[in-house]
Design a protein that fits this description.
The chain has 131 residues and is mainly alpha-helical. The protein has seven helices and no strands. Helix 1 packs across helix 2 and helix 1 packs across helix 3.
């Protein structure tokens, strides 16, 4: 397994996901979510590289091994949001699809099937969101 090293694009994505989460801690659904993701995705950001890198490395360290599975549902949804911003502000469904997970399965992994969330899915999600 190769180490995950966040890129600048990944750090901007985690910053945008943080902004989205600060404004909408309970999330949004549907068209309203899509327009907000686009709006935040188009924002010009001053990136505090050290804060973004610290947050990214926190996820990598906290859930960096198969024995640490499953991450909390909040950590999973935050990383899905990060991937959505990495991909240009797309929906969570598009983010799940990008890593080969059907959106309905992704939603289930955040709720009733959370215990089935495994290392290959997390590693793929983390890599796609941060690299």
């Amino acid at each position: 397994m190769r180490a995950i090293e966040p890129t600048t694009a990944g750090l901007y994505a985690i910053k945008r996901a943080t902004i989205f989460r600060n404004i909408y801690p309970d999330g949004l659904n549907g068209a309203e979510s899509a327009s907000e993701r686009r709006r935040i995705g188009e924002m010009t950001l001053d990136l505090d590289i050290s804060a973004a890198r610290t947050l990214a490395h926190g996820f990598i360290i906290r859930y960096g091994e198969p024995d640490a599975m499953p991450p909390t549902p909040d950590s999973i949804s935050f990383m899905v949001d990060t991937l959505s911003f990495r991909l240009g502000g797309v929906s969570r469904a598009d983010a799940w699809s990008h890593i080969g997970i059907k959106p309905s399965r992704g939603r289930a992994l955040l709720t009733r099937n959370h215990a089935a969330f495994n290392w290959p899915i997390w590693y793929t999600l983390l890599s796609a969101a941060l690299e």
